[in-house]
Each structure stands twice: as C-alpha cells, then as structure tokens.
Amino acid sequence: VAIELLGGVVDCLPPGLVSCCDQLTDALPADSTPLAHSVLVQVLVTALYSQLIDSPLAEQLCDLHDDQLSDLLTAIKDLGCVDNPEMDLEASSHVCEVQVSELLMSAAGR
Length: 110
Prior knowledge:
By secondary structure, the protein is mostly helical. The chain has 6 helices and no strands.
C-alpha cells in the first residue's frame, strides 16, 4: 500500500530532486545497483523507511523486490524531463501561498 501511495505522489516531487537523482544515476559506479535500478526509487523508499523505522511496515520495505515496484517505476518514467525547474523560491507559488497565509494570520493582516 505504501508503495502505491508513493506512486501517487511522484508527480508532486520537486524537480530538483528528480534532476539530482538523474545526475546520481549517471555518476553511480557500475558495481552499485539501486533498488529497482532507479536512484529515485531508492531515495523514495529510503525516505519512507526513515519515517517508519519503528513500525512493522519498515521491515516489509527491507524485503521489497523489483517486481513489486513496477507501478512506482511507471509513474517515475511518466514524469518526463523538466527543462527549466523553478529555482527562484520567492517566485514559487508554494512559498507565496505560505507567506500570504502567515501575513493574513498576523495581527496586522486580520
């Protein structure tokens, strides 16, 4: 179930993370093989594992096989390439929304 949920949020990943994983894939030594032959899958599963380390689900993550990750790999392959990732945080819509929310919740904004 957790892997299916990861597949559902792949399109929400920051473009910088995807680019970084692509660069790591190119620099990876030949004798190192990430989970499902994808650095991005390895990063996502490792992040999930680090958050769930004290739960029984974490042990199941250690026992994953490539065939169980096919849906996640399909979602990652469908991501495509981001030509010009948004690097200006001030212009980022998420940062703007957070700043507006903080302003409206302040005494001056009410």
